[in-house]
Amino acid sequence: MLVDAHAHIDWYTDALNEALDQIARHRIVTMAVAMDVPAYLKTRQIAKSCSYIIPTFGIHPWEAGRYTDTLHELDDYLRETPVIGEAGLDFRYVKDKGLYPGQVKVFEYQCAWAQRLSKPMNLHTRGAEPEVLEMIRRYRIVTPIIHWYGGPVELIEAYLAEGCYFTVGVDVLNPRIEHSIAEFLPLERILLETDNPDGYRWQAKEIGMPDLLLKILEKLAEIKRMPVIELEERLWQNWQKFGRGIELCSSDPG
Ligand SMILES: [Zn+2]
């Protein structure tokens, strides 16, 4: 069984049906993160037709500004979601520093809920890697997933010490990236992701479909010098360990 630990299923338009077909055909348990309330509602709706999809709720740092004054409207969704994400901070792609306090406020609110209900988080850390690490510590976030890490290599050990998992995604397929962090991340802390459908567009100028995960798996097997089938099994074990208590994680949705 395969796991895609970070995808935006609600972003598919014309290709949605084909994406759902691929997910079912390749049996890819898919953590479908949301960036705001409408995205979550749409994802939740899509998940009704595909038992492999786990919809998760979070407010992305790019969307945080719209929620700073209405945080309590998020409560029901934060209570309902098995994992809080996509949440986090972004001090790289968001250039306007005036927006940072709002990002922090919305992120802290979600962290406080994660702590209260012992929920894992699916985290965006761009350009704010020390700040997100600090927040994980302060709110004692359990088994956070660090999505598409692109920060200082020196901080990775500290993240691992907090029990974090790291996703390995399309970067390993990028010929312009010579060394991926996948080379030295411990196998037992790795999950795969596609960040579909747009994650692949950054390098390939085409939308990512769920079977992109197979390519990432094969490339990681090459990097870790192990048979694909063995790697798949190890990653599935990681997921089960991560997902204890999360619906659909420990069993085969069939
Ligand atoms: Zn994402």
Compact overview of the structure:
By secondary structure, the protein is α/β, with parallel strands linked by helices.
Explain what this protein looks like in three dimensions.
This protein is α/β, with parallel strands linked by helices. The chain has a single domain, classed as Metal-dependent hydrolases (TIM Barrel). The protein is built from 9 helices and 8 strands. The strands form 2 sheets. A 5-stranded parallel sheet has the order 4-5-6-7-8. A 3-stranded parallel sheet has the order 1-2-3, with helices on both faces. It is globular, with a radius of gyration of 17 Å. 42% of the residues are buried. The structure holds zinc ion (ZN).
Give the full name of the CATH homologous superfamily.
Answer: Metal-dependent hydrolases
Bound molecules: zinc ion
Note the total helix count: 9
Question: What coarse outline follows from CA principal-axis ratios?
Answer: globular
In which order are the strands of the major sheet placed? 4-5-6-7-8
Beta-strand content estimate: 5-15%
Model regions low in confidence, pLDDT < 50 over at least 5 residues: none
Number of strands: 8
Gross CATH architecture? Alpha-Beta Barrel
Task: Provide the helix percentage.
Answer: 25-40%
Structural class: alpha/beta
What integer is the average pLDDT?
A: 94
**For the report, how would you describe the main beta sheet?**
5 strands, parallel
The topology string of helices and strands comes to EHEHEHEHEHEHEEHHH
Distance between the termini: 10 Å
Predict the CATH topology: TIM Barrel
Question: Which CATH top level class fits?
Answer: Alpha Beta
> Radius of gyration from the CA trace?
17 Å
**Please, how many domains?**
1
